């Protein structure tokens, strides 16, 4: 039985494919960059490497979707709490950090990770 990865291979028109360690690094960076840069970090990682690796493509989309959802939650917290959302921000940020770190660890191990709560806008 052939050992095939559970994620799609990169498109045939892709440039040089990444080594397995580089795939894991970029996938981990897609998740962990969101702690400091919001959805911009995963977006950059995904756009730069999505054509080179199916693994990075999967993790980049997953991280990007999660962080778009988090941006919506941050915005909703400020709008619907009439300005006292600032007190909710630390709780939301801890939620984001915990799940991003768990996803980053899984990506670094070469595992597929799905956030338990996620809007999958980019497919």
What is the structure about, briefly put?
With 123 residues, the chain is mostly helical. Helix content is 60%, strand content 0%.
Task: Explain this structure.
This protein has five helices and no strands. It has helices at residues 20-32, 34-37, 40-49, 54-80, 89-108. Helix 1 (20-32) packs antiparallel against helix 3, helix 1 packs parallel to helix 4 (54-80) and helix 4 packs antiparallel against helix 5. With 123 residues, the chain is mostly helical.
Give the tags.
single chain; mainly alpha
Poorly predicted runs of 5 or more residues: none
- Please summarize the sheet with the most strands: none
Radius of gyration: 16 Å
Discrete helix count: 5
Structural class: mainly alpha
Number of E strands: 0
Shape: elongated
The mean pLDDT is 84
User: N- to C-terminal separation?
Assistant: 29 Å
- Beta fraction: under 5%
* SSE string, helices as H and strands as E: HHHHH
Oligomer: single chain
The level of helicity is: 55-70%
Element layout with pairings:
Layout: H1 20-32, H2 34-37, H3 40-49, H4 54-80, H5 89-108
């Amino acid at each position: 039985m052939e050992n095939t990865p559970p994620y799609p291979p990169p498109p045939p028109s892709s440039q040089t494919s990444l080594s397995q360690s580089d795939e894991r690094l970029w996938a981990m960076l897609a998740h962990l960059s969101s702690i400091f840069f919001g959805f911009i970090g995963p977006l950059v990682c995904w756009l730069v490497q999505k054509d080179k690796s199916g693994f990075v493509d999967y993790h980049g989309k997953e991280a990007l979707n999660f962080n778009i959802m988090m941006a919506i939650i941050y915005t909703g917290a400020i709008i619907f709490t009439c300005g006292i959302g600032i007190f909710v921000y630390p709780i939301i940020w801890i939620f984001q950090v915990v799940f991003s770190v768990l996803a980053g660890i899984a990506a670094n191990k070469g595992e597929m990770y799905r956030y338990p709560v996620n809007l999958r806008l980019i497919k």
